[in-house]
Amino acid sequence: MKTKIIILSAAVLGVLAPAASAQQSTVNGAAGGAVTGAIVGGPVGAAVGGIVGAAAGTAIDPPPERVVSYVETAPAPSSEVVVKEEIVVGKPLPEAVVVTPVPDSPKYAYAVVGEQRVIVDPQTRTVVKVIH
């Protein structure tokens, strides 16, 4: 049974990998999703998990180095908001946090939460990178 799951998982990845070869995170997401799906739901779970993992992996690509460099040195927006939740990649920032656009990079914005600078998708407010 395990051999069938492994073979099916490899087949799913073989179908998904060429379409996702331009984005490494998509391949990683598909692989992780397929393996997790196979463990939980068998062959059908592997197929569904691979597709869901590919979609989730595509959503969180790291920003380019020029954006990271800008955010590391940009002035901190004034904000007195206290955030109790942990700020993590893949989760949206609370609405009360001030988000500032990154000049010349409309796909990115940044915020300063406590002592952390974070880069976010300005449309969804989803954290794409936490700068330590």
Automatic annotation (TrEMBL):
InterPro entries in alphabetical order: DUF1236
Signal peptide (residue range): 1-22
Name under which the protein is recorded: DUF1236 domain-containing protein
Alphabetic keyword roster: Signal
Native source organism of the sequence: Neorhizobium turbinariae
Cited Pfam families: DUF1236
